[in-house]
Amino acid sequence: MDYDVVVVGARCAGASTALLLARQGRRVLLVDKAPFPSDTMSTLYIHQPGVTRLARWGVLDDVVASGCPPLDTISHDIDGLSLTSAVPAVDGVSAAYAPRRYVLDELLVRAAVAAGAEFTDRAQVRELVRRDDRVTGVRLRTGDATATVSAGLVIGADGMRSKIADLVGAPVLRSAPRASCVYYTFWRGLRTGFGFHERPGRWIARIPTHDDLTVVAAYMPQAEFAEARRDPEEAYLSAVESTAPDLYEQMMAAERADRLRGTGDQRNYFRTAHGPGWALVGDAAHHLDTISARGITNAFIQADLIADAMSGVPTEDAASVDGATSGFARTMADTLEGPYKSTLELAKLRPTKTRLRMLHAVAGSPELTSRYFAMVSGVIGMREFMTADVVDLL
Ligand SMILES: Cc1cc2nc3c(=O)[nH]c(=O)nc-3n(C[C@H](O)[C@H](O)[C@H](O)COP(=O)(O)OP(=O)(O)OC[C@H]3O[C@@H](n4cnc5c(N)ncnc54)[C@H](O)[C@@H]3O)c2cc1C
What we know:
By secondary structure, the chain is an alpha+beta fold. The protein folds into two domains: 3-44 and 100-176 and 266-347, FAD/NAD(P)-binding domain (3-Layer(bba) Sandwich), CATH 3.50.50; 180-263, 2-Layer Sandwich (D-Amino Acid Oxidase, Chain A, domain 2), CATH 3.30.9. The protein has 14 helices and 19 strands. The protein has helices at residues 12-23, 48-57, 60-65, 101-114, 163-168, 225-230, 232-243, 245-253, 295-310, 318-347, 353-363, 366-376, 382-385, 388-393; strands at residues 3-8, 28-31, 73-78, 81-86, 118-120, 123-131, 134-142, 145-156, 172-176, 180-188, 195-199, 202-208, 213-221, 255-256, 261-263, 268-271, 274-275, 278-280, 286-287. Strands 1, 2, 5, 6, 7, 8, 17 and 18 form an eight-stranded mixed β-sheet that branches. Strands 3, 4, 10, 11, 12, 13, 14 and 15 form an eight-stranded mixed β-sheet that branches. A three-stranded antiparallel β-sheet has the order 9-16-19, with helices on one face. Helix 1 (12-23) packs parallel to helix 4, helix 1 (12-23) runs parallel beside helix 9 (295-310) and helix 7 crosses helix 8. The longest helix is centred in the C-terminal third of the chain and has 30 residues, at 318-347. The protein is globular and about 60 Å long. The chain starts with a strand and ends with a helix. The model has no long low-confidence stretch (mean pLDDT 96). Bound molecules: flavin-adenine dinucleotide (FAD). Flavin-adenine dinucleotide (FAD) is lined by residues 8-9, 11-14, 31-34, 40-46, 124-125, 157-159, 163, 182, 263, 282-284, 290, 293-297, 299.
């Protein structure tokens, strides 16, 4: 066996999985077909459970040193309310971050390599190697060269359009229709901080990142995507102007720093995430509407879960590997069910009366507002948020 594990895809899911498995002393090969460092579509925000993992893995200091600004307050404007609070502190980390992906993914890859993983970019997996019904390796294409690599476990961290999922025929277990679409770009010199503006049919996010830039994203219903595509600039700017006029005014006085990007391919699914000799992590395993900005955090959670499941499991022992990946898939689906459900609800862009009543109720109390944001960030669950005092207010 050439490696214990081959991880296909080296961004937030793959690089962090490789990092944790390499730290277990395993021989890990991490490959990506893209050149690194490189960018990918994202509005960049990492929730607290993701940031605390970066801190635990020793990567957060590098993110901070890269000049990524800390996001220590959060605001949410909706229905005449303006909720503002400090970003919830967890494990001594009291800021969130939104690093550029060509910074974050590269730092994770470097950490994986420092932990002993081998990394090759511009290397594409086109086929799997099998013995009977078991995946035992990959065929890699790098430039004109093709190589066969054997491994005890092949992990597909290759995104929503996963080739590995395709090759193993991993079925979608559950899915929901696309609900939103999004356009975003970067603005230099905004002084708006981190937050959201919401009204029926619109969700605007402003997220400060490196180089004095702020991502401003406009989410609209999927039903409007065909119309928005005809004139994305107009759709984007009028969504911001009609939902967050103060932000729009600042944008008009600021420097636009990039082209507009957008997508309507907002899939919602859980795939079967394990099988004989293989597993899926990150978007390959589970994707949800990007409106809740959960993808990176979910990728880190999955990396932790698969590393925990594999801890102490010898990769030569096929039955134990398959038992571990099956356990990972179960725990992953349970852990990510809550954020999935709340994201599906949010992505409808139809704030319910109950939710508005709850927001009006918590707005009067700094403590409850802070707890509300802790729930949104995934620091506490719905049950911990809905304590007797909140229920009484409702
Ligand atoms: C518009 C938009 C906004 C978003 N905003 C946020 C946000 O604010 N916060 C957040 O947390 N998430 C956000 N997301 C989601 C987030 O970007 C993804 O969830 C995250 O990138 C998933 O990481 P991943 O590592 O699973 O997959 P990816 O980032 O998709 O990486 C997969 C990698 O696999 C490689 N690959 C694919 N096929 C092969 C192959 N055959 N061989 C070798 N390599 C291969 C690719 O080159 C790629 O580098 C957003 C997404 C979009 C589209």
